[in-house]
Amino acid sequence: MSEKTVKIGLLGAGTVGLQVARILREQNRELSARAGAKLVLSGVAVRDTGKVRPGIDSALLTSDIDRVIDNADLVIELMGGLEPARTAMLRALQHGKTVVTGNKAVLATHGPELNVAADTHDASLYFEAAVAGAVPVVYGLRESLAGDRINQVLGIVNGTTNYILDQMSTQGWSYEQALAKAQELGFAEAEPSADVEGHDAAAKCAILASLAYHTRVSISDVPTKGITEITPADIAQAREAGYVVKLLAKAERVMVNGQEQIALGVEPTLVPQTHPLAGINGPYNAIVLETEFAGRLMFYGAGAGGAPTASAVLSDVVAGAGHIANGGHAPRESTYAALPISDPGLVQTRLQLRLEVSQQIGALSQVLQACLDQGVSVASVRQPLVESGADQATLFISTHSASRQQLDAILAVLAKSPLVHRIASVLSVEQ
Amino acid sequence: MSEKTVKIGLLGAGTVGLQVARILREQNRELSARAGAKLVLSGVAVRDTGKVRPGIDSALLTSDIDRVIDNADLVIELMGGLEPARTAMLRALQHGKTVVTGNKAVLATHGPELNVAADTHDASLYFEAAVAGAVPVVYGLRESLAGDRINQVLGIVNGTTNYILDQMSTQGWSYEQALAKAQELGFAEAEPSADVEGHDAAAKCAILASLAYHTRVSISDVPTKGITEITPADIAQAREAGYVVKLLAKAERVMVNGQEQIALGVEPTLVPQTHPLAGINGPYNAIVLETEFAGRLMFYGAGAGGAPTASAVLSDVVAGAGHIANGGHAPRESTYAALPISDPGLVQTRLQLRLEVSQQIGALSQVLQACLDQGVSVASVRQPLVESGADQATLFISTHSASRQQLDAILAVLAKSPLVHRIASVLSVEQ
Prior knowledge:
Two copies of one chain form a homodimer. By secondary structure, chain A is an alpha/beta fold. The first copy, chain A, folds into three domains: about 5-135 and about 305-325, 3-Layer(aba) Sandwich (Rossmann fold); about 140-300, Dihydrodipicolinate Reductase, domain 2 (2-Layer Sandwich), CATH 3.30.360; about 345-430, Alpha-Beta Plaits. The radius of gyration of chain A is 24 Å and the shape is elongated. The longest helix of chain A is centred in the last third of the chain and has 21 residues, at about 305-325. In chain A, strands 7, 8, 9, 10, 11, 12, 13, 14, 15 and 16 form a ten-stranded mixed beta sheet that branches. A six-stranded parallel beta sheet of chain A has the order 3-2-1-4-5-6, with helices on both faces. The relative contact order of chain A is 0.13. Chain A has helices spanning about 15-25, 30-35, 65-70, 85-95, 105-120, 135-145, 160-170, 175-185, 195, 200-215, 230-240, 305-325, 365-375, 405-415, and strands at about 5-10, 40-45, 60, 75, 100, 125, 150-155, 245-255, 260-270, 285-290, 295-300, 350-360, 380, 390-400, 400-405, 420-430. Helix content of chain A is about 35%, strand content about 25%. Chain A is built from 14 helices and 16 strands. At the A-B interface, helix 2, helix 6, strand 10, strand 11 and helix 12 of A face helix 2, helix 6, strand 11 and helix 12 of B.
């Protein structure tokens, strides 16, 4: 083994941080051998130094983030959130240190600034753990597909929502029941909005799109819709029509007026049962890449959890420490393509609407007229039989491909129609 | 962009080689930017220099392999087969050059020799394209999971046989019909034995096991059985019991008498319909890794074909050229664990047997007695009704876990029994 030593500073000792410290200790010989350098934990920055951290030498604990950074060759940032994570990572990079992070929020918001700092100071930035936990999709996009051309990224990148949708589908539960179960099992937070409203997926979507298309994409570029309005009826109807409902992060290369653009979005989507993403159940993540040369690739695995995320962090630590010891650096951010982000209103999609309409004659024809007026053609209409005498019926309408603008205009007309009682759900359809 | 130039020598210009040359030309700017060095094709060794290779400058063509090697910084070996591939790769490595290969046969047979040459001469050896085409599983094992511990590798690593089994399952075709269709579509060779008898999968199994367990594993260590005896009846019976039939490459960490060993095998296997490998259809490949920290990971994609394999070759070229230009090298072979390979007779498995037995009373009890005599317990027995007067019945027997030795002893007894007309199929069962 090499005589070289790489000092590792850990910022944050929560669920993932504790696992990183543990594996770094228990597997030190193997990890050091793989890195070609002795890996030594040189400091751990925590908010509360009084709390016992099992397995971490208390002499390493400090609340002084800067001291941990300055004393390390490689900094692992696992504090989460925007600050002080951003400032700490910038400080480390500006001092030429290698940074490994699992912090999707800071990357999706301050990615460009961090990448510029890494480039300017010949430092390295690794973030495998920031997208889909243990699933090595960041490597796939950053290195493995370096010679290929990505045309579409479709991902299930939030395990909480995938678990909830899966339980709604297999157990017939309501959204509220499935969320409660997910919280009971620790798959969902007590305050679940970052997951169920799609913000976590949107941050990952921005990171994936930046890598796939060599373009700066930030979380604010990603139109986002969560799963809180999905009902068991939507899921049952999807099944009958040969689909499953998944919360998908999407980043697609599209042509708009002869110009390449990136169409982005996070939304509940009907996925054909034959698509490889349809079979991804429970809290797992999976990302499908459609590429020019390699064809379709899928990466699948645990998207969260202490040990899986720690595994991804440590793969980055081994790569980063290897480069510190033997030369080389992380792949540089490459935003040379700088494709424009499509106007969300112009992105083409297909929708399936579930409408609660009056039993009065004319509801269906009014809906069809609204589509016709917008030049949107209807792919299918289904109106399940209701008991005679009921004053309300349900109508399922699937459209052919049209722009969001056109589709939104239809929805606006329907919302005002006295014959349409409620637009019960609006789901995107993947082909 | 860097001023550095990396000269690339290509050995072999078949389906994959032509694609590599094409993409290297068409995407040169992008590939060079990613590598941090200008990539230049400096020579192409082919058997027949008179044949036109579209897109390759004829001045680069030569039949002199050594000249191409000596004139290059990085050598891409795509000749296939053992010789002259082995000699050429050794020559390149001994001169400290970076070698990228897609040749599973030479790696599964001469891997240790090649790795030693790379280590001794500070050269790099890359082989992403040798296992599962475009699917980045070699990276996953070599680098991404560097800090983890693999407990099981299960893979569909041969697209030809997966296509055949899939067609038998969905179309109800016989093996012969499905093979003919695969040949017609170019998914199977005119001489298909390397695929259908499992040898291609066995070579990949040896490479995967070497990487997963840091142990030298050669193709001759892998007990191998192909798919030529599978019938539509096996597949139909599997479906009824909740399984699909897949040709799996398996490499598992097992404990034998308190010692860690590796159990290996390639064989047709009943996979539960709920397992992620059950949904891998058509000519696709997928590898599932069960790991200590990251949990279950799956890699999925095109396992063969010119462009997908070229994509994998070029990802290695970019990594290798990057190291030539900026320092660093490929991960070193690490065979420090040197786990023993399990005696195939002692490997535990579950079997499902399909027996053609006499209608005479006593056939079933004789079969059960044979299991009992070997101490193997029977998990289930199924005997479909036959028309009265028929002189033959079919019997499906599933065993609980037992050693191959025990199971083979049962098969030997049954083969001699006058009441058992034929052992129609023997399938392993994955839990």
